[in-house]
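Continuing the series of single-chain predictions for the mutant panel. This is the parent chain; the variants come on the following pages.
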Amino acid sequence: MYSRPTVKPLTFDGLTSWTVFKTQFNVVSSTNGWTDFVKASQLVASLRGSAAEVLQGIPADKLTDLTTIEKAVESRFGDSHLTQFYRTELKTRRQKPEESLQVLAADVERLMSLAYAECPPDVRESLAAQYFIDSIRDEDTQHSTRLMDAKDLKSALAYSMKYEAAKLCRRHLDTPDHWRLRVTTVENGTINLNLFLTGWKNY
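Parent structure:
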């Protein structure tokens, strides 16, 4: 006979995101098949530290009411009051020296999930692409990626990486040594053409 797997409940101390914890808690409760009464009991048991102090403000007869407990924790630790903070972070986010485009994109995606959690996915993706482009450090890469008019973060990241790779390749091709090889090839013919091809393979 098949038995439903039991997933251990998580703990919340108020130092991490309440939204993230609540999502995980709902998944665990669904997997375990908890009723609202059991969910309320498990939520109370999961609170630690300053998060557990919220329970002191809840009447004793409401400590088994899931909605009451969730609202109490939400009002104290909910992410809604931090929304403006995360949006400001997005607006002022700039790529750091030596920071890769992939790392930058990952951070933009993280901030987007906190700043625009209630937005429809397509709107969030479009905004993420624009914030990512605005944060790119290299002006040429930023301008070229903006002209591409990416509809989502993934497309903007892919294009910007290709553009930077092409830029790096052009920089190698325009080195003085490579230029001398090309000029020599034109002036002296086949012998130096072989030297040019050998030099090309080294790039």
